[in-house]
């Protein structure tokens, strides 16, 4: 297991960690990171701070959820993939349980019983915190590939080239903000230590 979790991480779907306090931000860090003292007066910086404090919930690291679209998974074979959980140490199980509890709290996942189950593992890389992942390799083998046209980047840049202001929106864990269809929730289900979980949102962008 140790060899598999450290050498095949590119084949697994990563679950990023959530912060314990999702609405806290350091305004001093905002000032320094964006060199605001070189671009704004003290009065303007004060106005900006008041604005950010007033709407601090916008900067939450808890993902929202769109109601405009949902992602579906189409299979080329109806035979269920049911992979038993990998063996893990007590420490690894404790780390996974903590992350699963967070995802349950924010409705990213829900308890379920599906004919499809993929195993969870921890990818451990030197110098980094262990990352909980789902090994979807078996499921990928029977999933129909979907192709989407990629917009021309140069054309996109030209559309805003003369704009005075450009707004950037960075969605917190954007893939989790796209709900899965009911069918896909069961197909993307995972298992760990005897617990079977259905995914409610996309595991990867």
Automatic annotation (TrEMBL):
Residues 129-195 form the Reverse transcriptase domain. GO terms for biological process: DNA biosynthetic process. Transmembrane segments: none annotated. Signal peptide: none annotated. It holds the Pfam family RVT_1. This is Retrovirus-related Pol polyprotein from transposon 412.
């Amino acid at each position: 297991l140790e060899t598999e979790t450290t050498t095949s991480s590119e084949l697994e779907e990563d679950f990023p960690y959530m912060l314990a306090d999702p609405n806290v931000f350091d305004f001093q860090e905002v000032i320094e990171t964006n060199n605001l003292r070189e671009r704004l007066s003290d009065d303007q910086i004060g106005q900006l701070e008041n604005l950010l404090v007033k709407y601090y919930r916008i900067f939450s690291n808890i993902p929202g959820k769109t109601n405009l679209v949902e992602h579906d998974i189409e299979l080329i074979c109806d035979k269920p993939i049911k992979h038993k959980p990998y063996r893990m140490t007590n420490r690894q199980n404790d780390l996974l349980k903590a992350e699963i509890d967070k995802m349950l709290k924010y409705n990213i996942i829900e308890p379920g019983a599906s004919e499809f189950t993929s195993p969870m593992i921890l990818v451990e890389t030197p110098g980094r915190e262990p990352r909980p992942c789902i090994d979807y390799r078996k499921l990928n083998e029977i999933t129909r590939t979907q192709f989407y046209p990629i917009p021309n980047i140069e054309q996109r840049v030209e559309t805003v080239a003369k704009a005075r202001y450009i707004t950037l929106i960075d969605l917190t864990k954007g893939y989790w903000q796209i709900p899965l269809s009911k069918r896909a929730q069961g197909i993307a289900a995972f298992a760990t230590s005897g617990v079977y979980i259905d995914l409610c949102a996309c595991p990867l962008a």
